[in-house]
Amino acid sequence: MRFDLTDRVAVVTGGSQGIGRCIALTLAEHGAHVAIVAREPEAVAGGTERIHRPVDPVVQEVEALGRRSLGVLADVRDSEQVQGMAAQIAEAFGRVDILVNNAGATWGETFKMAPLLELSPRDFQECLRLNLVSQFLCSSAFAAGMVERGEGCIINLASISGQGPSPGNGAYGAAKAGVLSLTQTMAIEWAPVRVNAIAPGSVEHADRAAVHPYARGRAPVAQTTAVGRGGTVEDIAAAALYLASDEASYVTGTVINVNGGRLPG
Predict the structure, then answer these.
(1) In angstroms, how far is CA 114 from the centroid of its own chain?
(2) Are 123 and 112 in contact (CB under 8 A)?
(3) Tag placement on the chain: N or C end, fewer CB within 10 Å?
(4) To 10 degrees, what angle do helices 18-29 and 233-244 make?
């Protein structure tokens, strides 16, 4: 079987819903055991309430595929919780072969999405904590074991927003631009561990809130892509599967754009 991940151990952050859930199930379908990391909702303080699905249903879906799974509640913005999460997964599985840094968002309970002059310093800092600092914390927690073994794979979720101007969404764009740079540095410093990024365009799924602020006043996604449709979680999961597999053994320090051929303007 191509893209064979039999008995490899994967960790997917933000894996209880949306893109993360689909990546977790796709890796499991190809043989991987999967630890799924998610956090509980928090009080709104300067942002907007978000959807937070429970982790147990995805654990059960992975186990129904005949794989081992573990659900871990942890806030990936917090270094102590990340270290505790890594220890819990190491105790359960012994090692980690694949890390998917999927957790992230354009807005959250602690920061809003807005033009730069409407952002507070806290908005900007909290956006970076969720979308960039978390990827450093999680990657650092698992990279040492991968480097020691001389193998492993880290996949960082970036965004089209980090590849150019992102008006109205500048904090998120800056964070995801940081993800792209961090990915390249990790790939060099941690080789032969492979570190790559996926940069999605707009992705439509059931867990994408109907009140997403980015949707207001914008053209339908189908009109902004060369392929004439928005992305799906399956599109992103397919790219993650490729990068996690031996089919991508000569691919590191790069970014795969999954954006339907985003049209300018």
Answers:
(1) 22
(2) yes
(3) C
(4) 50
Q: Which residues contact 118 (CB under 8 A, 6 or more apart)?
A: 112
CA distance 225 to 259: 7
- Residues catalogued as catalytic: 172
Q: Distance between CA atoms of 144 and 150, rounded to whole angstroms?
A: 10
Residue 150: other Cβ atoms inside 10 A: 9
**Rounded distance, CA 245 to CA 190, Å?**
18
Q: What is the pTM of this model?
A: 0.94
**Residues sharing a CB contact under 8 Å with residue 122, sequence separation 6 or more, in sequence order:** 46, 110, 111
Asked whether the beta carbons of 26 and 237 are under 8 A apart, the reply is yes
Answer whether 203's CB lies under 8 Å from 231's CB: yes
Chain segment 183-212, per-residue pLDDT in tens: 999 999 999 999 999 999 988 766 555 545
Contact 128, 139 (CB under 8 A): no
Taking only the tens place, the pLDDT of each residue in 146-176 is 999 999 999 999 999 999 999 999 999 999 9
